[in-house]
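Example record

Each entry pairs one chain with its bound ligand, zinc ion.
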Amino acid sequence: MPATPSPAFDSAYVDPVALTQRLVRFDTTNPPGNERQCIEHIKSLLDAAGIQNQVLAKTPGRPNLIARLPGDGSAPPLLLQGHVDVVPADPAHWRQPPFGGDLVDGYLWGRGSLDMKSGIAMMLYAMVRAKADGMTPAGDIVLALVCDEEAGGDLGARYLVENHPEQFDGVRYAIGEFGGFSFNLGRRRFYPIMVSEKQVCHLRATFRGVGGHASLTQRDNPMTGLARFLQRVQSRQLPVHVTPESRMMFQAIGKHLSLPARAGIAALLNPRFTAIALRLLGPRGRTFSPLFRNTVTPTLVRGGEQLNVVPNEVSVDLDGRLLPGLGPEQLVSELAEVAGAGAEIEVLRYDAGPAGPDLGLFDTLSSVLKEADPEGIPVPMLMPAATDGRLFARLGIQFYGFLPMLLPDTLDFAATIHGPDERVPVDAINFGAGAVYRLLQRYGRSP
Ligand SMILES: [Zn+2]
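Structure tokens for the complex follow.
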């Protein structure tokens, strides 16, 4: 691990590491969620700090919390946003208990340690410290901690955005999950800050045939069409697109790389060579591929009700992700092209993403990161997945993935988020907590 330019951390405030541990120990696996105790714990911490807050819930037991630290009004309110729920964890596949929050080998282990209870701890640390210091930020600091992100956000961000939009009046910028993590490329240390994300587009492919008794030869069994479809979808990739968002991201990265690597980036951004460049990049290419393609991943198969009856219909649901600026009809036609005849494809859910990013806060976030890590290079990032940011975007809020962490190369970030052995370096939590605090100081002030 590189030397850690860790901020001076004063334990007179909330200890962000101990707080992350405490939050991880609340089992907020969604489904079913059970976020209430975790939110109550955070509420008591804010109450003790004298920070005004309230709980808003669509369903009892699935609360959301909004807190506000008043600013002097010289800048619009700034939103700090996070979710307290986590995805399931099977202890059988973990080296440490998933809800233990244990400190082992410099890491804090547990489900949610990265995604995103450490991020919530950073925000709480910054807010409580600002209050204790008597800081008056340029704009109100609004903290929104929600339930239900991992299952679509209907009870969390979507509920707040649709039923309590007044809580976010005047907010232009927000920070939240997915971004600000260090990432080494060509001996440079980049900090991708998420400024745009792919769009959720869930699809269903249905196959029809002739049902009948399973003891008889059934040529028109729809299972056959399904099998062929899955085979094709899994073995082929959808066509490449170079969007303005990925162009911006890779141009920013390319500027800091040596000549051969820069040529590789130029190839990546030329649609005629993108697919080849991705292949030549090997494992890195696999990481980057979803930034240049719509994707569809089969996840749920339905069909058949009885073992001795051939069904006349089977279907598969696909988790589709669309690049920004493209619409669901594009994904349906690309999938139909790959799948061939026989599949009826319908759109189950489409959450349109925001228009092109507003980079008005980017320089402030960059300067905060550079102060924390002078060797770090912040770059704007297109994120291959979706966050609650897409819901806040409906209120005209530009969302930034900004939970700063200096991570060792040895941590396979993508594999541990939502996977077994999720863990976060203890130093990275302190690094991020200091950076978010500096953001509250810096926000809306001239440099
Ligand atoms: Zn998350």
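The chain has a mean pLDDT of 94.
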